[in-house]
Specification:
Layout lengths: L2 H17 L2 E2 L7 E2 L14 E4 L9 H8 L5 H9 L3 E3 L2 E2 L11 E4 L18 E4 L3 E6 L16 H7 L24 E7 L2 H12 L4 E9 L6 E4 L4 E2 L7 E2 L14 E9 L2 E8 L6 H8 L17 E2 L2 E2 L8 E9 L6 E5 L4 H14 L3 H7 L5
Parallel strand pairs: 9-18
Antiparallel strand pairs: 1-2, 3-6, 4-5, 4-6, 7-8, 8-9, 10-15, 10-18, 11-14, 12-13, 14-15, 16-17, 18-19
Length: 374
Amino acid sequence: MTAAWCQSQRKLKRERASLFGLTDCGAGAPRRRPLRYTHVVMESLESKFAASAEEAGTRLDRVVAAHFPELSRTRVQELIEEGLVLLNGKPAKDSHKVHANDVIRVVPQERPALRAEAEAIALDVLYEDEDVIAINKPAGMNVHAGAGNSHGTLVNALLGRGLSLSQQEDPLRPGIVHRLDKETSGILLVAKNDFAHSRLSEAFRQRAIKKIYLALVQGSMEEDHGRIELAIARDPNRRTRMTAKRAAQLANARPARTDWRVLTRIDSTSLLEIQLHTGRTHQIRAHFSALRHPVVGDTLYGASGQLHIGRATLPSLGRNFLHAAKIGFAQPHSGKAIELTAPLPAELKDYLAKLATAAGESSARIDAALKGFL
């Protein structure tokens, strides 16, 4: 291979990555660039290939993703939904099973620019003053827009209230100083101006904000309380999750601390009160997965799809049993101590009731353990 040939291949890779909304990071996987794209089709870089015999019977989205490793699975599915992936000259579903020698044509097209737009979405406001608004976020709601997700977010809803929010961060995330996972419910603080944003961000960095979560985990915890101090890093094999099992060996590992205590044990589960001292991505989920006590409902981190209690099988929860229940912070201007509580959501209370019934437990005992959280 000549130097000129290698250079031309690197250039082509950069062009393909650019078209699909990615930037070339050199060593390692590509990463997304800021979502400020124009809506352009570049016919000159279309790709056409024939499915091999080994790929026969494989889903279309998996085949395309294998030929375009710079694309995320989500972006491949978007291209298929937009009719930009043709199977034998016609649009097809992402789940379509290909046959040997099927001709697949991919037309690269950039995403249109994303903007944080106002939407009329009801919110449960726990507290509000001139600097801060605290929202009880439901499970299933994203905090802000991202790739493949531009509507129905918490930011959309806040803007729909006509709020002026801080602008210190990415324009897609006005006011956001911390986040909760999509399937985690509970308290989220939002800054309404740049001064409040700076004060709250610094308080989070200094670990001066107290964050208490409730979680139901699989298995009976042996101790009544404990501390987890395991570094967390992006899982190199599954990019949608983090890892705490071998994170110390990875270059991007960051220290993390989680304190916990058992509120009650119900059959083969443990209901925990958890305090975060750091705010790593998926921290609680990754830490308890590493202990082999995954959060109930969290199949990404190894939880069972359904719990089996005695002879009963509980229905799927449909979310993670993880709730940001309490937060304590200083009002940015006055310094006054503020403590807020978000009651346990109805779907989690109902799940505990079903669990108690299946285990032959008293609901009153569980309610007593949750005193202050209901």
